[in-house]
Amino acid sequence: MRRILVTGANGQLGCALRLAAAGSGDSWLFTDLADASDETLARLLVQGGPKVDLATMRLDVTDANAVGKMLRDNEIDTVINCAAYTAVDAAESHPAEAHLLNAEAPRILANAVRETGGLLVHISTDYVFDGNHTIPWKETDLPSPLGVYGRTKLEGEIAVAESGCKYMIIRTAWLYSEFGKNFCKTILKLTSERPEIRVVNDQFGTPTYAGDLAETLLRIIPKYSRSGIWHYTNSGQCSWYEFARAIAAEVGHTNCRIDPCATAEYPTAARRPAWSVLDKTRIAEDFGIVPPAWEESLRRCLRYCGA
Ligand SMILES: NC(=O)c1ccc[n+]([C@@H]2O[C@H](COP(=O)([O-])OP(=O)(O)OC[C@H]3O[C@@H](n4cnc5c(N)ncnc54)[C@H](OP(=O)(O)O)[C@@H]3O)[C@@H](O)[C@H]2O)c1
To answer: Which of 39, 83, 134, 178 pairs as cysteine with 8 (C-beta 3.0–4.6 A)?
Structure first.
């Protein structure tokens, strides 16, 4: 039985892990800065039944003393780091905060895990790449982030890899779920309220259901044999516009017209990669993981959204 600690456990992936963990046979400790919101707890209860662990212990991942003590006191052998500064546009005007959470906190966690001899599973992003590609990005491709979020996430990867701890860095992309704030939930709301919306049609990637990523983490952690980077997203690819159309079509929001637009027509603080599809060959070869198609997983998520 493993003793697993999850950081940022009230976020999208953290909540998906709470559901996936129920009945796993491992011992789990879910931590975050505060308790989960009432809405999150209600969703977890509806989906998971009584076995889902709803408790959140307070752990600030930027506090090295608290991290070390928590790992030692609870004899933790595996840490899954879901805590991050994920607001891509806000990161441009808050680079110090983004650096603290995305680069410094992984260093703190990696050092603490090295001391206890455990395994750090660290989640990273397709935004470490610049998008200047037309074939899926491999783990061996050179990162070249376009903005503060991607740059600080890359710094976090490097800190983990250089720490000397046992680690698995999992890069994912376009994460959405029934929890928290994400593109899928925004489109559900907008298409139920507005007669028309415009969505960018010149950025391509792969939507990834947090529930699928959580289940994948549970499958690969017991098979750890070497440290490294692996890519995981759902399979397939689309633009944000195509993703939005699929969401609205699936739930029958036909009264809202969705029009495509160019990134240039929808200026944001952060530049985003135009093409960030990730190659999943390595995770398939090493762990036998075959991700579901994004359309299939979207249907699964929408059932849980109650849409
Ligand atoms: N979201 C995406 O589209 C996406 C895409 C690719 C990769 N990723 C990566 O996937 C991972 C999980 O993302 P997610 O969408 O699940 O993130 P999320 O929903 O934003 O959750 C992050 C959690 O970390 C918490 N947190 C913030 N500061 C903290 C601190 N000092 N100590 C402990 N916890 C803290 C947040 O609390 P507050 O809400 O109170 O701040 C939140 O509960 C991240 O590493 C992210 O970079 C995400």
So the answer is: 83
Yes or no: say if 215 and 229 are a contact pair by the CB < 8 Å rule. no
8 Cα to the center of ligand 1, angstroms: 6
CA atoms of 98 and 111, how far apart (whole Å): 19
Q: Give the architecture-level CATH label for domain 3-181+207-236+276-292.
A: 3-Layer(aba) Sandwich (3.40)
Q: Does the annotation mark 266 as catalytic?
A: no
Residue with CA closest to ligand 1 atom 40: 33
Domain ranges of the chain: 3-181+207-236+276-292
200: its two tokens:
């960018």
- Chain center to CA of 280: 16
Can you tell me the distance from the alpha carbon of 64 to that of 66, in angstroms, rounded to the nearest whole number? 6
**Total-model pTM:** 0.97
Interval 102-158: pLDDT, tens: 999 999 999 999 999 999 999 999 999 999 988 999 999 999 999 999 999 999 999
Q: What is the whole-number distance in angstroms between the Cα of residue 118 and the centre of ligand 1?
A: 22
Tokens of 264: 């240039």
